[in-house]
Automatic annotation (TrEMBL):
<keyword id="KW-1133">Transmembrane helix</keyword>
<keyword id="KW-0812">Transmembrane</keyword>
<feature type="transmembrane region" description="Helical">
    <location>
        <begin position="153"/>
        <end position="174"/>
    </location>
</feature>
<keyword id="KW-0472">Membrane</keyword>
<dbReference type="InterPro" id="IPR052712">
    <property type="entry name" value="Acid_resist_chaperone_HdeD"/>
</dbReference>
<dbReference type="Pfam" id="PF03729">
    <property type="entry name" value="DUF308"/>
</dbReference>
<dbReference type="InterPro" id="IPR005325">
    <property type="entry name" value="DUF308_memb"/>
</dbReference>
<feature type="transmembrane region" description="Helical">
    <location>
        <begin position="127"/>
        <end position="147"/>
    </location>
</feature>
<feature type="transmembrane region" description="Helical">
    <location>
        <begin position="39"/>
        <end position="59"/>
    </location>
</feature>
<feature type="transmembrane region" description="Helical">
    <location>
        <begin position="71"/>
        <end position="89"/>
    </location>
</feature>
<protein>
    <recommendedName>
        <fullName>Acid-resistance membrane protein</fullName>
    </recommendedName>
</protein>
<feature type="transmembrane region" description="Helical">
    <location>
        <begin position="16"/>
        <end position="33"/>
    </location>
</feature>
């Protein structure tokens, strides 16, 4: 590959990163505008996903000819369908469980972002800020009252998305100007 081709690829990657970062920030802004509705919608979307996984798991069980894991997978498919139905009938209550998962995701994402900083030669300061914000958000969600955490979850997701988006934009701009 020639040097010009490499430069063009790096510029394209930088442009794509800027667009992706802007879309992430925009998503964060939209979530911040209606945080509770966003979380309830996300909970319902998870229920739809579980329903599809359950149905497809059962279809797969009945398509198999051998007995390997049929019983276990069949029970798992039924479990997913029941869980999806329970979430559909109580999306607000299910959002509390979602709050715990999102808090864990914030912490894991923050730790992974810190661990990945060593592999990135550019944009480390914003990556570190993004990681610290996510870890603080996750720990805060774990430490506060579950009802308060559920109410704050939409704003926390919005904050996380905006920092992530700005971090992606920052790295992409730096990458674009390296060539």
């Amino acid at each position: 590959m020639t040097d010009n081709q490499q430069k063009n690829l790096v510029k394209q990657e930088g442009n794509c990163g800027i667009v992706m970062g802007a879309l992430i920030v925009l998503t964060g802004v939209l979530v911040a505008m209606t945080p509770v509705l966003s979380i309830i919608s996300l909970t319902a979307l998870i229920a739809v996903g579980l329903l599809f996984v359950g149905v497809f798991t059962l279809v797969d069980v009945f398509r198999r000819t051998g007995m390997e894991r049929r019983m276990l997978d069949g029970l798992l498919g039924i479990f997913f369908i029941i869980l999806a139905i329970l979430i559909f009938f109580n999306p607000v209550g299910s959002a509390i469980g979602l709050t715990i998962w999102v808090a864990a995701w914030f912490i894991v994402r923050g730790v992974m972002e810190l661990a990945g900083m060593g592999a990135s030669p550019y944009g480390r300061s914003f990556m570190a800020l993004d990681a610290i914000v996510n870890i603080v958000l996750g720990v805060t969600l774990f430490c506060i009252n579950p009802i308060t955490a559920q109410a704050a979850l939409g704003y926390y997701v919005a904050i996380s998305l905006m920092f992530w988006g700005f971090s992606v934009i920052h790295r992409s701009i730096l990458l674009k100007h390296l060539v």
